[in-house]
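Q&A FORM
Asked by: J.P.
Topic: structure of Peptidoglycan endopeptidase

PROVIDED:
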Amino acid sequence: MNSILDRRLTPARPDLAARHLAGQVEARAFADSVMLRVVAPIAPLRREPRPDAPLDTEALAGEVVAIYEQYEGWAWGQLGSDGYVGYLPDDALRSDAPEPTHRVSALLSHVYPGPSIKLPPLALLPLGATVAVSGESGDFLVLADGGYLWRGHLQPPGAVESDFVAVAERFEHLPYLWGGKTAQGLDCSGLTQVSLAAAGIAAPRDTDMQEQALGTALAFDDSLSGLKRGDIVFWKGHVGLMTDAETLLHATAYTMNVYREPLRTARDRISKNSFGAITSIRRLG
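REPLIED BY: S.T.
REPLY: Here is the structure written out as tokens.
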């Protein structure tokens, strides 16, 4: 589907659309964006402006969002990281949040009210969240908005992991969550996206987008031979990462966690019970 018509990537509704889409989409009104930053550790992006609406994805602390409407506690806009469109809680966003200077490199890291691990934490930040550091205190870095993070859990934004599969392996056994992209719960494409992001590789959010955007398609047959660590295996609606020539790591509702198993075992089960045949296997760089 052309991204201009894809509701996931197009800030357009029958009643309101982004002004830059005027002439390309029909809407009763058009609006300029207001750039806000996510200040909650994790902000749910939902398909509709209500707390029980489906979770499409999550925005992480520090992310910039182009907002076109704020109404009754909800902000409708487009994520700066991957272009996903939806509704976020209005109180998760701020216009005056400081520019991030560091990125969280641990799967999860507590924010403390002072430079001591014995204090009750204020918040829990996920891998990939970004924060503004204004100082240091012993083993902690001081956040511009208040709070202390252990310095070993922070890296400058330009620092990247050398092996995105090793990042994904750190999530093994953690829970499955549709639309999630943190260690508190994530889905198959979320696992792929956040692991690649940690290695400095931008990826779209959903499996169909990732299949179109990532790497080069490999030829393969029923033997599934010739694969290597880092190859990305796609089904229609599912994705997993090869940890070696035979083993797949994926976030799956089959076990409701991030699960490692032989690719052939996953291939046979998935073909029979859910997503059908493998549609492609892609290799980066």
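FOLLOW-UP: Helices lie at 164-169, 188-198, 207-213, 263-273.
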